[in-house]
Amino acid sequence: MNSDRLLGLAAIAMAAAMTVAAWGYAAPVEYEPVGPRAFPLLLAALLAMAGAWLAIKPGRHVDLLRGAQSGVIAFCAASIVVYGIVFQLLGFVVATALMALPVGRIFGGTWKQCLLTGVGMGLVLYVLFDKLLDVVLPKGVLEPVFSLIGL
Amino acid sequence: MDSFSYLATGFGVALQPMNLLVATFGAFIGTVVGLLPGLGPINGVAILLPLAFALKMPPETALILLAAVYIGCEYGGRISSILLNVPGDAAAIMTAMDGYPMAKKGLGGVALSISAWSSFVGSMIATAGLAICTPILAKWALAFGPAEYFALMVFAFACLTGLIGDQPVKALLATLVGLSLATVGVDANSGVYRFTFDSVHLTDGIQFIVVVIGLFSISELLLMLEEAAHASAIPETGRNMFNLKELARTWWGTVRSSVVGFVVGVLPGAGATVASAITYSMEKRLTDKEGTFGTGDIRGVAAPEAANNSAASGSFVPMLTLGVPGSGTTAVMMGALTLYNITPGPALFEQQPTLVWGLIASMFIGNVILLFMNIPMVGLFTRMLKVPNWALVPGILAVSTVGVYAVHATTFDLVLMSILGVVGYVLRKCEVPMAPLILGFVLGEMMEQNLRRALSITNGDIGILWESPISLGLWVCAAAMVTVPLLYKALSRRWRQARLQAAA
Questions:
Q1: Which of B15, B91, B194, B435 keeps 20 to 30 A from A37, CA to CA?
Q2: pTM for this prediction
């Protein structure tokens, strides 16, 4: 299916969901002519119109997922999501080292290069932000080690 | 007090050692981000914004940093355009047209130095324009009521829709998505929770930094996967400085392009990319008698560089005076100011004169720093092009994530950031422009508030929206912005067909 048509249908679906969710929004005390519901509903209506336009008159097609690359991109996207999830759990240094490995590999580094960059970057950025710049980062699983060496 | 004494105060702020240091740092980072293919000013500003906030910089220092990064990017973009034929950011596309052929002829050093010079001239002219125009415009804008503001924002979106890309409906779609994202959270007027789905994390809305980093930085990293491997840079040979003859040859084109670039930059929505495209074709039509544009003509390097820099500075005008940003990057900066509880707009000049004038003065100083950084240190910057992606991408990802984490320190924000990154990637693949989306997100709340306030005045009669001459004029301009490019496209297509038929 044409990518624009898909986009248009997605926009219509989003507009529908917005309408359903926003329908019940009402102020407990109504003191102005336009309540909290009008603006979202207006946006949903316009969104549905723009979506319908795209679905009826789509432009040229773009391949969203080109065969060989789709797997790589999905893997990279997954690595980024996982990084977000484990960032606080494992701590900045470990999470960053773990992220740099798959992401670096995707971008053509060797195992050794990626491992060294990841670990080095994790440590350097941690010291830079947490110690020098006062941006508190999670210590995570390395907490006992950090407190041992006084970082 | 007149503008000059204000400007003197501004220089007092900008020349404080801390602010000077920050401006130099920002100029350096900006140039590096600008020259890296794929990363543009929005990415640079988006990466540094959370840091500025987390470091608890005072607002004027943060703004000086971000402005230096923004201007620095416009300087940096030209380096990879000239040496690699790969524009470092979108606004430098036109610079590659003549810059790369010049480099191939062995004049890379001259192209780099003349473009640094014309960037400087462009920025300086635009910053002077900024210092002159903004106080006047701000005074005029004080007369704006909610209805005028609403019309002005419609005009800004119309500019973006009409000027960006060939599919206006996608720009409209992006605007609407941005506006919708802005409605998430508790409604200030009635206390109703909208689209929060009972999540505590969404009660005060989606964090601005999460949206910016997700949609711009994360999606950019995914897009980088598709790009071909780095092309190799052309080594610099021969002299590095332009001579007086070359300076004279480019001078008037540079000045013309700077003025046009400034005017284009002031229009909300049209930014540096549009400005450099317009001035390149303008210079080609005006001065290219021999047909040498595109084959390494030095005038074709100077003009678009002057224009994109002056447009970047010009886009501060609508942000500072009206509170309606002129480009995606200034939209991000405006978001930065709102993080400090400062609302840009006409009142800003009276409430925060040190902030505004400090920023303007720092732009003058930043340009001098950039000129001195960019001519002798160009070799250092070209070496940056050799940083491999396998180290660069994880680095950008880590720094961006730190920035998002620094605001609220929740896993929720990080996951939302990565999801928005994937969504942004898909949208960009579908050729949906991101600038209207971020503008919509930044302006969403203001737009709704002004609409509701306007309608409260008349108790629900929507006639007020086009009652005053100012708002009526803005509606007319908005309509023209959308229809004129479409008409022009349709007409030029018909002309071309007619000409083809005549030829056949």
A1: B435
A2: 0.83
